[in-house]
Each structure stands twice: as structure tokens, then as C-alpha cells.
Amino acid sequence: MALIKCPGCGALISSKAAACHICGKSVTSIPEEMGGEETKPAPVPVPVPAPTLPLGVQQKSSNASKLIVSLLITLIVLIIGLVVGVFLLLKRPSRQPVEQVYQAPAESSVPDKREDVDSPSRTSSSNIPGIYPEGSTRYLSEYDLMGKSLWELKVMRNEIYARHHYIFKSDDLIDYFARQSWYTGYDSDAKAVARTFNDYETQNIYLIRSYERALKHR
């Protein structure tokens, strides 16, 4: 243990003493050249600041946080809207299918092709003279011509000319239509008579003539 002199009274005191035991002077004030050791105060700990991010990094982090929050809010709103929509859809009353009532089509004024065109009722009830008045009132089909002989087809076709007062040149037709009470002939120009035909008559004459030719070649 070292001894030092007290600067106040000169007494020898221990270097570890805080003050002189004679005069009471503080030992810390003793200069080093007097053989004393200066007592240094204990170091005060300095708090170390927490590391901080650069300003640019802080702004990016803040923007990312805001974006995440916005996305979460949007997602929550969408989920709520979806749930509400499904709920309303399930609560919606189901529509019963409307039963369709079938309505039968109105009866056509055109006679059925399967009717007997030669029946007396058809001929007597028609305002068109002749055995085959349908040749002037509707389009014929091959069904109307099936089963008829060449003579019957010839009469059917020339009845259309007879209704337009054509004067026939062949003896068989002259003889036949001379015996028909409704027939009066005064026009010998076949082309002029044909120009007075309606659409039914024009088409039907073409069909009957074609059917006659096919029947002759059988």
C-alpha cells in the first residue's frame, strides 16, 4: 500500500483513502507530482441509439405497408359482396316454367291433296266448271296425277284452255268439249289464251304435260 502526503497538512495518508484523516482534505485533489494517484470518476455509460433505415428505404417500406392494407381492404370488400350476392341469389324465388299451350293450326283453305278430286261433291260445290277444277285453283302435284290415264291427263290439261274459251283443233277435244254445257269457245290463238292464265294454271299445265311425256315412255 503506497503512502502520499496530504496537500493540506502534509501528513502521510494512504493512497486509497478518499480524504485526509487529519485535515479532511479530499485525496482526489492531490496532484500526481506529489506522488498521489488521481482518482478518476467512473465512466457514465452512453446509450447506443438504435440503427435507423435510410429515408428512401423508410418511404418504400411505408408505401408497401399502405399498399398491403389497401389490398386487404379491397379483398375483404369483394368477399363481402360475393357473400351478399350468393345470399340474395339463394333467397330469390324460382320462376316456374310457363307451360306452352299448343294451338292447332287453322285449317287451310287449300284442299287436301289426298281428297278425291273427281268426287261429285267437289265438282258441284266449286264455282269452277269441269271435272278437274283444281287445275285453276291450286298448284297440283304428282300425287294429283297418279293413277290417271293419258286421256284423263289430256282432259285435265285442256280444261284449263276450255275455261278461257279456246277453240280446239283436234277432233277428240272438239267432240269432248262440245258435249260440256259450260264450254263456249271463241278464241283460236293458243298463245293469246295462255297469256290470260293465272299462276296456278300456267304451272299446272307444265306439270301435266311433263307427266304425260314420262307416262308415254314407260
Helix and strand arrangement:
Blueprint: E1 3-5, E2 12-14, H1 55-91, H2 120-125, H3 142-145, H4 150-163, H5 171-178, H6 190-194, H7 199-216
Antiparallel strand pairs: 1-2
Measured between the Cα atoms of the first and last residue, the distance is: 158 Å
Number of helices: 7
* Biggest sheet, spatial arrangement of strands: 1-2
Main beta-sheet strand count, sense and barrel state: 2 strands, antiparallel
Q: Mean pLDDT across all residues, rounded?
A: 77
- Report low-confidence residues grouped into runs of 5 or more: 32-38, 95-125
Shape label: rod-shaped
Number of separate strands: 2
Strand content: under 5%
Which value, in Å, is the CA radius of gyration?
Answer: 66 Å
CATH class of the domain at 122-216: Mainly Alpha
Describe the structure.
- The structure is a single chain.
- The protein has 218 residues and is mainly α.
- Among the domains are: 3-33; 122-216, Methane Monooxygenase Hydroxylase, Chain G, domain 1 (Up-down Bundle), CATH 1.20.58.1690.
- Helix content is 42%, strand content 3%.
- It has helices at 55-91, 120-125, 142-145, 150-163, 171-178, 190-194, 199-216, and strands at 3-5, 12-14.
- Strands 1-2 form a two-stranded antiparallel sheet.
- α4 packs antiparallel against α7.
- The longest helix has 37 residues, at 55-91.
- The radius of gyration is 66 Å and the shape is rod-shaped.
- The N and C termini lie far apart (158 Å).
- Residues 32-38 and 95-125 have low confidence and may be disordered.
